[in-house]
User: Fold these one by one.
Assistant:
Number 1:
Amino acid sequence: MNDWWTRLADFSGYADLLPLVGNSLLAGALLALVGGLVGVFVMQRDLAFAVHGVSELSFAGASAALLFSLDVVAGAVLGSLVAALLVGLLGSRARDRNSIIGVLMPFGLGLGVLALALYPGRAANKFGLLTGQIVAVDDARVSVMAVITVVVVGGLLVVWRPLTFASVDPEVAAARGVPTRALSLVFMALLGLAVAMAVQVVGALLVLSLLITPAAAATRVTASPVWVPVLSVLFAEVAALGGILLALGASVPISPYVTTISFLIWVVCRVVGGRRRAHGWVRRATA
Amino acid sequence: MTTHEHVLELAGARMSFGERTLWSDLDFTVAPGEFVTVLGPNGSGKTSLLRAVLGQVAPTAGRIAVLGHPPRRGSRAVGYVPQQRIVDPATPVRARDLVRLGVDGDRWGPGRHGRRERVDELLAAVGASEYADVPVGMLSGGEQQRVRIAQALASHPAILLCDEPLLSLDLRRQHEVTALIDETRRVTGAAVLFVTHEVNPVLQYTDRVLYLGPAGHAAGAPEEVLTSERLTELYGAPIDVVRVQGRVLIVGDDGHVHHAEAEE
């Protein structure tokens, strides 16, 4: 029992360890920014399952890259872009989309498992892609993540209003000439990039903790188009950075810390939001 | 808002999908501020007519013009009020956000400040100020449709397309929403093209009816078009138009009652 505890939280020598995780913190901060923003649209467009599916294909891409000694980040990006665009092209209706994702996901996971089984390297590297491996973030990888962040955040800012219109009110958006189909593909591409980034940090299985949970928590407590993204990013930052800092004093991966903080924030928001909803959200003169 | 004689003009317009022709030789004009009710059985091309006016489909033949120009996707001259649909109460979109999307949701970039007054003004015009900050999914059907009308008015349209806006509303809300649309066209001078299954809530406001039938179409004042003779022609089958207690019932030969308020 005592042994478990020291593995989960041992803060002796913490000050010495801190400088070593500068890159990790930077990577986590970038990912949280991207995840918090992308998550807002993932919620609006009901794409939670798609995120999960895309992350498995991203895992397959990264594993294949590992096996063939290619760049793992490039593999992850390629895998998730292909998956995201396939889902975007073939699944414009929710039912089609879910069945396509259901088909792609095990296929991707299977390919990834095959690639890892054939890979002769260390086992820790292998599982890192599934469950997270923040310690291995070098300068080059942070640079790539920074570039992806700029592309995704910049892209989202450009399409923000029409994408919101097309996501929450597709019929009227189409009537007002918003190119809903093209926007759907653009968003899937941005989502693919965000997922590829998240796979590097929290692993394919836990991508949802930074791409869905923070936005889901934010939408429980506010409906403001300004506060939803702000809170979503804030929650994602707390989860990602808090997780990394806590994991520093432990000999287990960072992902359980990230996912737990993320989940706890959601629970609190859910309770607070539930009370507000029960009281009719805002005070109205007549009921 | 417009000096055009007609906000909408159809000349010899035809809409076909493959072998099937929905309507043809449609000559019809809508004047500013006019309330036109579009009736017809399912599949008679009512929705295609709206889509053609929105510029989403081109007519197979003939000409359609909005304010003298061919319909253009995203034209601000055309406002669109859809049928009410279920919105998840947790969707983080408030009444004012939906209206705001009508103001500038079609523009690129992250948006600017300073639109709040315009949104407040639109919400006030439809009597929706009180629930401006309530998520749309928590509004009643009638409240949602009020917000929808405010949204459609955001671009100062010359014509409002109403696509079954009364569907799934109860009788009282149907009358409220229809009265609001009528008031709106009087205040703004926008014409109304109102597609509906339920003729009775709109009858008292209707200037002209456009009836799209399986065997042809007819346009004119409600009392001219909604007669047993005319509709029997348009359906190519015996149809009875019955007026009871100030309501119009249209009864087909299969015993099915069209346009009755108790249709569900």
Note: The first strand of chain B starts at residue 8 and ends at 17.
Number 2:
Amino acid sequence: MCGIAGRILKAPGRVGADLVELMDAQEHRGADSTGFAIYGIPRDDGFILRGMGFDNARISADMEDFRLILKEHGADFLEDPTFVTSDAAHYCFRMVISEPDDLARWVKDADTMTDRFEVQSCGRSLEIIKDTGSSVEVADKHGVRDMIGTHGLGHARLATESSVLPNASHPFWARPFPDVAIVHNGQITDYFTWRERLHRLGYRFLTENDSELIAVWVSHEMSEGLTLEQALKKSIKDIDGVFTYMIAGEDGIGFAKDRFAMKPLVGVWEDGEFAAATEEQAVRRIVSGECDVINYDGPSITEIWGVGNRRAAA
Amino acid sequence: MSEIVIDVGERPIREINEDIQAACKTGRPIVVRNTLSRHNLGVGLPPGANLHFEGSVGYYCAGLNTGATVTVERNCGWGLAEGMSDGHVTVGGYAGMSCGAAMMGGLIHVKGHCGPRCGVAMKGGNIVVEGKIGYQAGFMAHKGKIIALGGAGDSCADALWQGEVWVAGEIDSLGVDVDVVEPTAEEVAEVDAILEPLGLVDSSRNWRKMISGQRLWYFESRDAGAWLMI
């Protein structure tokens, strides 16, 4: 059992604060770890990176090595990286980089460091913040409530398929595709087979988490020419297990639900803004009045919710 | 008798349920307000209690009911009246997944549509849905009746034991091991007797009654294909 949430605003606003509320209301569904994918106001050039290193005594050494790889690909830091540290062994970073010559090739080289350091999101606007602990703990530690953006995802994890580790939390970035993130509620039963196939195509997975597969699977299908809608529909036939997952990109959020209809999702539109969550009581944190909630209860369903205005002030 | 009003808001559910139980002892009608779609409201209600929930409720509302009369103004989440042994539960709008799961007696009346697997593993009692019943309605129902007046979704009456699913209207598809049978006049009269107090009798309905084909009651290797469908 996990809890997921999505939020779309009609103009840039306090999407971080809303997602923290949506996830706090669903903490009982899984408080092992909590994560957020926030789509801020997009940059015109360069990428924002989020991620973590696993030994906070090695921050400067990690940065040196990481920067070296960046430079080999014709890129560099555009701002000084910032860090969040705690009593835990791992540290989290945020950085802004100029554009590598070939993003996929750079990601592949940067991933040679993943035994101690990993990039967990990359995009013009996407930032993934994830950690062990509850929604409020992760929000306090990483300042999620202050994050401004147009849309985003949230996830509360109850680990069933793999260990509780900060980097095994959701959301997952669809490496190496910029600005794509997923959250998943359920279990993928054939993920090992699918990972093997995608491995052979050159994709890299950083955790043992079954959900990481979905991000790469959908992005791969899209890179092969499918639209998001087609990829979502195909996943219901091709991926085995019980799932409701949401996948976000720069222009919106899509979701797919398995053929057994095992994992709930509700949504509500109000005043041109959208909130979705596993449980209705969570969206009522955002829309407290009686409202017409959409129950996405049927089997094998998909939908895509678009994001309108990404740059105008709220 | 004047009603007792209980406010939900952000208070702990245990405290609200204790208030509800105390109010039930007075014998007065109870109105529960500001429900915010929260879970586990009014679980384990005693016989004779009379509750009305304003707005929408979350999961397991009126679960383990032992004889109370409950109305929900709008929608409810998963597992409405799960494990109910007796009572009468009415939902004004939509009932989420698994309403009446494992119920043993009493009546659930849903005025809107129903989510997937209503009456899953029910062991008695009746569920009346004025709208459409969702995917896999009556999944493995042991006993009791699910009566849908507005059609049924896919995989209707999947893997029944001795429960019955009655549908007036379109059925998107049948589940595994279902026999659709012509009901006798006596059987239709039994269903009408359930609908009559709800004011829902309509003699022009073209009923389809679904019961178990009994192939899944015992495993036989020639039926392996049907088992794999589940």
Note: The two ends of chain A are 35 Å apart (CA to CA).
